[in-house]
Design a protein that fits this description.
transmembrane; transmembrane helix; mainly alpha; 2 helices; 80 residues; membrane
Length: 80
């Protein structure tokens, strides 16, 4: 099974947008009152936070990968 790399920025964005959806679903279902203007700062702030997390994740990965060296030639274990 192929594994994918974790992308925390997308995780944060998905969590914030899910929270906004839950807030308005609860309002539509009559569980609580959510003012209409709550979505703007919630979504905007969440997307800015997700962008910052994605930026930091990219910087950390780029710094970590810069210290690694790769060789294209097969080593002694790969010869057959």
């Amino acid at each position: 099974m192929l594994r994918h790399e974790l992308q925390p920025g997308k995780l944060v964005a998905g969590a914030v947008l899910t929270l906004a959806g839950v807030l308005y679903a609860g309002d539509a279902g009559g569980a609580w009152e959510t003012p209409w203007f709550v979505a703007i700062p919630l979504v905007t702030g969440g997307l800015c936070l997700a962008g910052a997390v994605a930026f930091l994740t990219g910087r950390i990965r780029r710094r970590r990968d810069a210290g690694r060296t790769t060789t294209d030639a097969p080593g002694p274990d790969m010869a057959s």
